[in-house]
Design a protein that fits this description.
This protein has 423 residues and is α/β, with parallel strands linked by helices. The protein contains 16 helices and nine strands. The chain has a nine-stranded mixed beta sheet with strand order 3-2-4-5-1-6-7-8-9, sandwiched between helices. The mean pLDDT is 82.
């Protein structure tokens, strides 16, 4: 095996130094094994380690990482690393290049496997039945290693279902999924379950951000890592709402320093609980759908996210300008559903309503703005509204795949503490 890096490897490694978004683009397809040169394998492994540690990938950090990994990694010179970084201009072809490298590696591995099969066919003393099982095992390993194919068998699925059931019986949990914080909603849905896309709709100013914050708090407080992505509020605003919700201290008192010592201590205690809980609030700019997907997947890998909240869907940009806005929003919901299924998490997407819904009248699925794809992709659809004839808000379970739907839950809205209390 040659140590010298090929031009194709140089292009790929240079592109990977163009930013975390480019690594994420091919993360599932990149392994050190597919690089044909010795140094290519070493450098790619160092880049992956930096990415997984949430560190920047540049000439300095990459060289330091190689040095920290000892021999043979530390033998790579600063000049070699610097030469790679000069090819960052080629990032547009990254997926194509990785596919070429991946296929070249696959061909080589299949050649090795083919030679082994020929030897088996020529050797009369080999037990064909036994070797057939070995060959099948090698093929499965190759698919997993090269093409990231990890097919779960029926037996594996059934075994996992039994384990999940045993875990539920042995625990003090009454639901299978993540706690919603609302007992009647838990009873109807069994909590937020893996693979689910949940849509929460309300009129503008109707309390959907506050309710989603409550959902996030309830999840994090039962130690389910929760990723709250806010495109409208700052992180400080979200945390202020969360602390006010948990402590019962009115937010307006906090804003103007109108709290006494007891209330201040309650507020500080709430901040401490939030700090200890696995709640991650992300208020950074979401450039487009690819950026949103990247942020979600990265947090899943680094913190084992179980619940993602996106506030809100319609504000996310889709780079496909050739389609209308409804098609773009449908694509966003489809991607969120795919992420939920792929990583076995729950995703709550907040959505706006169209003009048919004024916040008072009973909402229906067709009233979701750009609704067709959202309605189809969602496993659960919830609507929050404030009917004139009722003294409280209502949370309507409009869709509930596999459960009861068109159910209504009365909630009292404490505006000063951003808290919904079940009636």
């Amino acid at each position: 095996m040659s140590k010298a890096i090929t031009e194709l490897e140089k292009n790929i490694l240079g592109a990977l130094m163009g930013g975390a978004n480019y690594i994420e683009e091919v993360f599932d397809d990149i392994t050190p094994d597919i690089f044909p040169s010795f140094n290519g394998k070493l450098i790619s492994e160092a880049i992956i380690k930096l990415y997984n540690a949430d560190k920047a990938v540049d000439v300095l950090t990459l060289f330091k990482q190689l040095q920290s990994m000892g021999k043979p990694y530390s033998a790579i010179t600063p000049v070699e690393v610097s030469n790679i970084s000069q090819d960052i201009f080629g990032i547009g072809n990254l997926q194509v290049w990785v596919k070429i490298l991946q296929q070249d590696y696959a061909r080589l591995q299949y050649q090795v496997l083919g030679e082994k099969m020929l030897n088996i066919g020529r050797n009369q003393e080999i037990d064909i039945v036994e070797e057939r099982e070995n060959i099948e095992s090698l093929l499965v390993d190759l698919d997993s290693k090269i093409f990231n194919v990890k097919e779960e068998s029926m037996l594996d699925t059934l075994a996992q279902m039994k384990l999940d059931n045993d875990e539920l019986l042995l625990s003090d949990k009454s639901i299978r999924g993540v706690n919603t914080g609302i007992q009647k909603l838990n009873d109807l849905t069994s909590g937020w379950k893996e693979g689910q896309l949940i849509i929460l709709g309300a009129a503008s100013g109707g309390g959907k951000s506050a309710l989603s914050t409550s959902f996030a708090i309830s999840s994090a407080l039962v130690n389910a890592p929760t990723h709250f992505i806010t495109i409208e509020m700052t992180r400080k605003e979200v945390l202020l709402r969360a602390a006010s919700n948990m402590s019962g201290v009115k937010h307006e008192f906090l804003d103007r320093n109108g709290v006494d010592n007891e209330q201040r201590q309650m507020y500080f205690n709430a901040l401490d609980r939030i700090n200890e809980a696995p709640l991650f609030v992300d208020d950074s700019t979401i450039k487009n759908l690819t950026d949103l997907k990247f942020k979600i997947k990265k947090r899943i890998r680094t913190h084992g996210t179980r619940l993602v909240v996106v506030d809100y869907i319609q504000i996310v940009n889709n780079t496909n300008n050739k389609t209308n806005r409804e098609q773009q929003v449908n694509e966003i919901s489809r991607v969120l559903k795919e992420v939920a299924r792929e990583f076995k998490i729950s995703v709550i997407g907040l959505t706006q309503m169209n003009r048919e819904h004024d916040g008072k009248n009973e909402p229906f699925n067709h009233m979701i703005r750009e609704s067709s794809g959202l309605e189809h992709n969602a496993d659960i659809i919830l609507f929050l509204y404030d009917p004139e004839e009722e003294p409280h808000n209502v949370l309507k379970v409009s869709k509930n795949r596999g459960g009861e739907k068109d159910k209504f839950i009365a909630l009292h809205w404490e505006k000063q503490t951003f808290k919904f209390i079940e009636q």
